[in-house]
Amino acid sequence: MRLEQSFEVAAPIDEVWTALNDLERVAPCLPGAAITGHDEDGTYHGTFQVKLGPTTAAYRGTIRIESADESAHTATLAARGTDKRGQGGASATIVNRLTETGAGTTVHAETDLTITGRLASFGRGGMMQDISNRLLRDFSTCLQSRLAEAPVAPTGEEIARGEAPPEAVAAAAPEGELDAEAAAASAGAAAKRRFER
Prior knowledge:
alpha+beta; seven-stranded antiparallel beta sheet; 6 helices; 7 strands
């Protein structure tokens, strides 16, 4: 089964590209998906659960980025999974192509999907297309909100008490203007709190 979809993200193309290729970051945006671990070769392990009509499909499987061409903003992902109850499986090759638009970035997703076992019947009659459209809509909304989130600057009091991690202090400081004293105070206070426990 071939699915072709696209969605808009109000963010620069390079930012969207980086986010989409960070599977651990974007997986929670897909309803029912979770990353449970990864291998050194870049293969991620995870679970995926989706409601199909009167039944719920629960898969355990892997996903990896097969190729990524940053200059063309095109990435190919390969996913495969087996039904947790042993009643079939699914595999997909997903090609994401990003293009710049006036308002931000358009993501074109082409998916070659194969489903085996008892759930294969749901591929008929357009149900799978409807479900994938809903999932992609939810995914794009979540991705948009994640990209819009800016790091919140910690207060001086949080830094002094060690409640702000040093990386938050660094992220909140304007480039090249990190107050070394504030970062050191934060790290020192955090270390002291750990030592006192």
